[in-house]
Amino acid sequence: MAFLSWRPLTMKLENSITVRNNKCWISDSCQSLGFPVLTKFPSTLWIKRYKQQVFLCRKNNQHCNPFLIVNRMDIYDTTLRDGAQGENISFTVIDKLRIAKALDEFGVQYIEGGWPGSNPKDVEFFKRAKQELHLCRAKLVAFGSTRRKGIRCQDDVNLRLLIEAETSVVTIVAKSWKEQVINVLNVSLEENLAMIEESVRFLKEHDKEVMVDAEHFFDGYSHNASYALACLDAAIRGGADVLVLCDTNGGCLPWHIYETTSSVASHFGSQQRIGIHCHNDMELAVSNSLSAVYAGASLVQGTMNGYGERTGNANLISIIPTLQLKMNYNVVGSKLISLTELSRWMDEVTNVPHQPSRPYVGDCAFAHKGGLHVSAILKDERSYQHIDPSLVGNRKRMLISELSGRGNIVDKMKQMGIVTDSQLQDPEWKRRIQGILEQVKSLENKGYTFEGAEASIELMIRRSLNNYRSPFELLDFTVLTGNKRVYYAVGESNNILTHGVYSSETFRNESITQAIVKLGILETSNGACPIERTRCFEAAEGNGPLNAVNLALKKALVRVHAPLEHVNLQDYKVRILDNESATAAVTRVMVEFYDAETKCVWSTVCAHSNIIVASVQALMDGFEYALLQRLPACFIASEGESSEKSAVLL
Ligand SMILES: CC(=O)SCCNC(=O)CCNC(=O)[C@H](O)C(C)(C)COP(=O)(O)OP(=O)(O)OC[C@H]1O[C@@H](n2cnc3c(N)ncnc32)[C@H](O)[C@@H]1OP(=O)(O)O
Ligand SMILES: CC(C)C(=O)C(=O)O
């Protein structure tokens, strides 16, 4: 067995030992990982390594039975280099600095910043990083390639720029597939080996920690294992610290990765660090990376959210929690709870839309829709969740739709704080819940969709309560829309540029839209109980029907409830549901609102054959929800007081 011999635990290592779930964890880079650190280990503690694992034992124990096993695993982020090779991804130097800072705070061990031999932006990044980037945990890595064919390392611009980047770690890509060496590099097999060995040695002579990314390693190994291994041997002769095996084309299967990595690990022995770099061309990059870890790799390269060339790289946002929660590697410690925030922030910086179905961090990752699922989860959270979402900073969501059962409605009512466990036993409440469920199913059948319109669901539930009185009623509304011909003053029309053509029109057409609304609004006295319903009559002009009604409604409501001034319409989506009926089709309208003061966002939905009616109802619901959020107590009638039902138009 290739055990390293026992040696005393150094102070440095001692400080990095942490305990969690009755297991002891160690971080080789001596980072504080946020777990409770044992205050003092006995000085009799000895340590040794075997296959990327760390064993601890007491010195006096003759047999040295290890009582603690600690695994080492490093995360190497290449978002700033390989991630930037993804289509439509382009980082500024400032973006790169911000991302590197965020990755460091999150706790990855290596951050590949770019390829200084590629472009001036990356040169500037490394220059600014020296002054501005004070990394606490991670090591910054400069990326490049082996020297060009037929020249000395000291004459190779790419290697020189790697040294000038002044990072402590350098990674170079080396060819390891025989055919590629012949067809692409166009050099002899011996010259490629020399390029690898000499380049690594040159970098080691400059005191760098050197990783060699063996490009196309798995394909190369399948075609000619001995040459692929010879490339790694050349890297070792040069002094490489980590050999990174790459599935460059993303075409390998997990068991292929496992077998090849196992062979390489046993070829080089347990002391040699092996890394893995996978691409996602068959959607297997995460699985392949984990297979390599299972086979002995102790460094995983990948990118945030899987950005990268073609279909992307191995997604670290999935790999990190899997390593930590399922495979017991402590990679980022307690920082794991910021995983969801980091993933979404990266999407914003990268200008990539959030993908709700992303494992662990997506909006849908813990969203439960089916009635059976929700009912089971309410009894046992583990029923349909592989982890507690809060471990990765995400949250469970129960959706309400035509696929719901009573459980979905009960959960929503509990969240809203309007039903207690004992009330749930009451037949009257049971009937009410059943009624709401049936209303949801019937409205969805008419074209509503309540997913993504939680405000409408809340209102429906509130309106079902005996003591609810709506904050306002829409008594009448009228929308006028038409066209107005506007004549130019004499001389004004000359040389008017329309669509790039000069013409001498004497008038232009302008569309006009006006809305008139009459509301009965409950007034509140100092935010307390409503005192009376005030009639308000308002009109507004807008650039379209929805805009005009929105302005008129808001004008009327603000007269009584000034804070509604901050409520704005943020998005408006329309979908025709029955294409075959053409203009007689049902239209579904979803409106998103934003309160600039409270920063809350909410959505409402309505479906109707008249698009204006659907829009007005969705707007009213949005304003009603805003008022309920601000003055929840005001619209509950006290006992004995007569309650008024909602302002529903339909
Ligand atoms: C698998 C990967 O993702 S590796 C990283 C890939 N990333 C990138 O290519 C992005 C950055 N690249 C660049 O900016 C440019 O391609 C540069 C600056 C690196 C090179 O640009 P150019 O000098 O114009 O060369 P070009 O890109 O056209 O061709 C690549 C050259 O590098 C050679 N090359 C390829 N791999 C290696 C290697 N591992 N070691 C040495 N030379 C290599 C090729 O043989 C070719 O040289 P040749 O034209 O003499 O045959
Ligand atoms: C340079 C290496 C790491 C690479 O991107 C690949 O082989 O896919």
The separation of the N and C termini measures 78 Å
CATH level 1 class label of the largest domain: Alpha Beta
The CATH architecture assignment of the largest domain turns out to be Alpha-Beta Barrel
What's the overall average pLDDT, rounded?
87
Largest sheet: 8 strands, parallel, barrel
Biggest sheet: strands side by side, in what order? 7-8-9-10-11-12-13-14
The secondary structure category is alpha/beta
Which kinds of small molecule does this entry bind, naming each only once? Answer: acetyl coenzyme *A, 3-methyl-2-oxobutanoic acid
Q: What's the CATH H-level superfamily name of the largest domain?
A: Aldolase class I
Q: Portion of residues in helices?
A: 25-40%
Number of strands: 24
Note the overall shape.
Answer: elongated
CATH T-level topology of the largest domain: TIM Barrel
Radius of gyration: 32 Å
Tell me the β content: 15-25%
Total tally of structural domains: 4
Low-confidence stretches: 19-23, 28-43, 645-650
Count of DSSP H/I helices:
18
EC number: 2.3.3.13, 2.3.3.21
GO molecular function: (R)-citramalate synthase activity; 2-isopropylmalate synthase activity
Pathway: Amino-acid biosynthesis; L-isoleucine biosynthesis; 2-oxobutanoate from pyruvate: step 1/3
GO biological process, one term: isoleucine biosynthetic process
